Amino acid sequence: MSHDQSETLIHMVNQIAHNLQSASDPATGVKNHLEKFWARSMKERIIACLDAPDCALTPVARQAVEQLAQQRRQAS
Amino acid sequence: MLGYYDPNKSALSKDLGTPARLSENHVSLEIDGVEISVPEGTSVMRAAALADINIPKLCASDNLEAYGSCRLCAVQVEGKRGYPASCTTPVEAGMQVTTQNTKLARLRRNVMELYISDHPLDCLTCAANGDCELQDMAGAVGLREVRYGYSGENHLDAEKDESNPYFSFDPSKCIVCSRCVRACEEVQGTFALTIDGRGFDSKVSPSQMEDFMDSECVSCGACVQACPTATLMEKSVIEQGVPDHSVITTCAYCGVGCSFKAEMKGSEVVRMVPYKGGDANHGHSCVKGRFAFGYATHQDRLTTPMIRDSIEEAWREVSWEEAIGFAAERLKTTQAKYGRESIGGITSSRCTNEETYLVQKLIRTAFRNNNTDTCARVCHSPTGYGLKTTLGESAGTQTFDSVMKSDAIIVIGANPTDAHPVFASQMRRRMRQGASLIVADPRHIDLLDTPHRSDAQHLPLRPGTNVALVNALAHVVVNEGLEDHDFIAKRCDTEAYRAWRDFISEERHSPEAVENVTGVSAEAVRRAARTYASVPNGAIYYGLGVTEHSQGSTMVMGIANLAMATGNIGREGVGVNPLRGQNNVQGSCDMGSFPHELPGYQHVGDAEARGRFEEIWGVPIDDEPGLRIPNMFDAAIEGTFKAMYVQGEDIAQSDPNTQHVEAALTSLDCLIVQDIFLNETAKYAHVLLPGSSFLEKNGTFTNAERRINRVRKVMPPRAGKEDWEITVDLARALGYPMDYQHPSEIMDEIARLAPTFTGVSYDKLEELGSLQWPCNEAHPQGTPTMHEFDFPIGLGRFAITEYVATEERTNRRFPLLLTTGRILSQYNVGAQTRRTDNQSWHDEDVLDIHPSDAEMRGIGDGDWLGITSRSGQTVLRARLSERMQPGVVYTTFHHPGSGANVITTNSSDWATNCPEYKVTAVQVEKVSQPSAWQKRYDDFDRAQREYLASAREPVAHGVRQ
User: Which terminal residue of chain B, N or C, has fewer Cβ atoms less than 10 Å from its own Cβ?
Assistant: First the structure.
């Protein structure tokens, strides 16, 4: 897995989380955004990032990605 | 409510002399014994013309207010003295008018005689021969002799002005009717022309007796069109003669979508004349659409398909069959090796709706993935996101004509006089009638300098602080009690509104609190908010200065919030109006170019919608979104995305961080470029499919007001195929046959699948001229104004718009902010306009810098400057300009060697990845040589041109079709 690509994706999720910080449920907002706009490969890769030791996801972003991971596990 | 019936339409080919009046009161009168009833305020001349009684005229034209100078249109009115000019005489009830009798005939002949006594008699060799109103009128009044002779004092030796590349000015033929002067004022709104001197000395003067090129003239062509003689004449007509037939089509430049008459001889376009019946432009044009069409026949046009194995090799000219076969084989091999999702494509916002639809269809069906995107990604994708979230539809809410009912016009991050010139002229017309103007822009734009405008306010904000500003405007509206509570209660979701109101009322959003962020004085913000919120009709227009930011989507939602809070939605004169960049950006979005949306903005995850597509397309469709353009680049560099089909878009020049894009393109195993020229992207390609210009195909474009206009083929495609036919061939070669005989059949399929297009057909377009979607059972004749009664999502949704400062910040190393944009004469990457005489106005991109920033660095006008950002460096010449605020520099991206996008960064909108072109922290210093990138670019460019040239050398045994 390319480190750069993961970094880019982490940066993107953090940015989304930052922009949705004032929403009523930011984590779900971020999760829905990823669900709706991100390609399959990007979703899989960001979920894989959760296990990386140096994963720089901010708390809300991490929560959103965890929700996404859970949702996809349930769907499959 | 707008009427669909235009009284002008019945007589579009005829000049009725004076403009239509729209009064509902009708007045009946008798002209030459014929009874006619016309709206109050109509001139006698127009009333007569409507009754097919044609009164001779020279200074009158129905796109200009009556002037009454030529006296040729004199009539007699029962009970009145003298011979009033019919153009300046309004109809009265019961009037009895005589347009022709012995006295009038003699009077007209005498007038004509005086004109001709000072006019060259070279009719047979004159460029206007056969197309001259003076000649026609001399015939109409029966002029047979000129008793004064021709040897008296005259203007026959007046010197020509050939300075403009597109038209000549021959004052010896001028009759001083002032039509050109009035067209420049009333139609274009530039006021570049005047009549200098008095009496016999009167002459038309650009600015203060300057050449046209040196004057304020913007070369829109309105004066040339207005001239009744050969005084102002297109050089193409001087060279080629008067055209013999014409076809009405739609301009392929900006998002205004002007209708033009392509005036032809055989299959050659002699001139493009703006079409009076065009619903977007009403007979006006700009220098691009009017004159810059020569690129279509430029020698650089690609006319033969070409292939090569690597970008280090020369091109080989091959047959269409071989090129398509080669492309298909490479795509299949790539997918076999790297997987289904390893390929994708980009639809063109310059091609037609039908062509765009087919490319995304090809990707979703034959590529079997959703890796489709379009150049709207890098311009208006935040509009799609922001407006859909708040108002429920990804489109502007008004017609262009709506601005004529606006009382306050806010323009944010847009420069209409350069980027949407024909609409800017309309805005200026409204401003001259008294509408207030509020401009929020880091730069001082030309709209602020509109002659004879009323009140104008400029909010010169710091780049990147849009959201802070729009929140402050909304804060004032809420805290000063300027909300439209009825509208909010009736039309908006209460819970979302309450949450938003709590948010926006917080003191941290007040103009005073954000003054230090935006750099705009609190008082100016308060005044602007009051102006917008307190007039009956407030309208907001915005451009890429809103969308191309890290908070582009947030800003679009902030604008929608402001419009909803003040009730400025759902009628004429108000609304939220994105000014679209390219001719078919709206259409390419409508046609399902985005990776997450099928045509008609239906999400790929929506099983019901997807099912309808699967039924008609006959294959399963992936239910997950595909990659967006920046994601494709990242994946290409990473090695998981390996092949791309790009139709009519130059990503190598237009997308940010050029070196990143170049790295992505060189990582591809197969790049298929379909374009009319060897553009920057094509230099990285393995397959070149020569496309067709807008003059060579049938189809439709959709402009910024959702208006679907017909594009009509006026000449055969240079390379033999319209673009949609190439996509059909590629689909077939990939094993997904498409069966269309004509683009109208593609539109029929779109109408079956996109709920907002169900009523659209070529037959209806022929009947009505144009259609604004939604056009369906509920709106069979289209929808000029959106959201009149409800929103597509029921109630409007206020969105929380937290201001988040961009990560692209200035510091000691990069102390200035760079913002980029366009100018009038060039279009986008310049591939078209650089191949026309528009180069005379702008043949290089320069860096605008405020004199104080320049002085600090010892920079003089014209010095070479190295501009360095965190992404790269390029070198441009300096232009000192007080349009800029200190700390902000500006450039355009029309010339590839300028490398404007070498310096722009990967920073992008949080919601859509639309690049943040408008904010780049840079340093600027004097240098003596081009940048390292520019040197590399020059070498690469030279090599690639040679690869093309060697393919074009005569082939002894090659395979040509």
Answer: N
pLDDT tens, residue by residue, B319-331: 999 999 999 999 9
Angle at B111 between CA B107 and CA B115, to 5 degrees: 165
Report the alpha-carbon distance of residue B777 to residue B763 in Å, rounded. 16
| Closest by Cβ to A42, choosing from B631, B804, B911 | B631
Residue A3: its pLDDT value, please? 56
Structure tokens at A24: 């009523």
**Eight-class DSSP state of B794:** B
- Which residue, B457, B437, B464, is CA-closest to B526? B457
Classify burial at B53, counting beta carbons within 10 Å of its beta carbon; exposed 0-12, middle 13-18, buried 19 or more: buried
Cβ-Cβ contacts under 8 Å, A3 against chain B: none
A18–chain B Cβ distance below 8 A for any pair? yes
Q: What is the ipTM of this complex?
A: 0.95
Hey, what's the torsion of the CAs at B409, B413, B417, B420, to 10 degrees? -90
Residues with Cβ within 8 Å of residue B122, at least 6 apart in sequence: none
Q: Which of A12, A39, A43 is opposite residue B595, by nearest beta carbon? A: A39
Mean pLDDT of chain B: 94
Of the candidates B27, B344, B64, the residue with the CA atom closest to the CA atom of residue B181:
B64
Cβ-in-10-Å burial (0-12, 13-18, 19+) of B583 comes to buried
Domains and CATH numbers, chain B: 9-100 (3.10.20.740), 124-297 (3.30.70.20), 306-379+584-736 (3.40.50.740), 381-578 (3.40.228.10), 816-928 (2.40.40.20)
Peptide bond before B774: cis, by omega within 30 degrees of 0? yes
What b/e sequence results for B865-895 when a residue is b if at least 16 CB atoms lie within 10 Å of its CB, and e otherwise?
A: bbbbbebbbbbbebbbbebbbebbbbbbbbb
Where in chain A are the domains? Answer: 3-75
- CA distance, residue A13 to nearest chain B CA (Å): 8
A2 → closest Cβ in B595, B622, B638:
B638
pLDDT tens across B702-739, in order?
Answer: 999 999 999 999 999 999 999 999 999 999 999 999 99
Token pair of B219, please? Answer: 């070369």
Chain A environment of B506 (Cβ under 8 Å): none
Judge whether B561 is closer than 8 Å to chain A, CB to CB.
no
Which amino acid belongs to residue B761? S
Q: Do B634 and A24 touch (CB under 8 A)?
A: no
Helices (H) and strands (E) in chain B, counts: 30, 34
At residue B409, does pLDDT exceed 60? Answer: yes
Chain A nearest-CA distance from B440, in A, is 23
Residue B72: DSSP 8-state:
T
Q: Does A47 touch chain B (CB under 8 A)?
A: no
Q: Does B339 touch chain A (CB under 8 A)?
A: no
Contacts of B596 in chain A (CB under 8 A): 36-37
**pLDDT by residue (tens digit) across B458-501?**
999 999 999 999 999 999 999 999 999 999 999 999 999 999 99
Put simply, the answer to whether A4 touches B637 (Cβ < 8 Å) is: yes
**pTM summary value:** 0.94
Distance CA B927, CA B881 (A): 20
CB neighbours of residue B356 within 10 Å? 34
Q: Which one of A11, A37, A43, A76 would you mutate to disrupt binding with B, by most B Cβ within 10 Å of its Cβ?
A: A37
Residue B961 has pLDDT above 70, yes or no: no
CB nearest to B802's CB, from A22, A24, A41:
A22
Residue B4, pLDDT above cutoff 60:
no
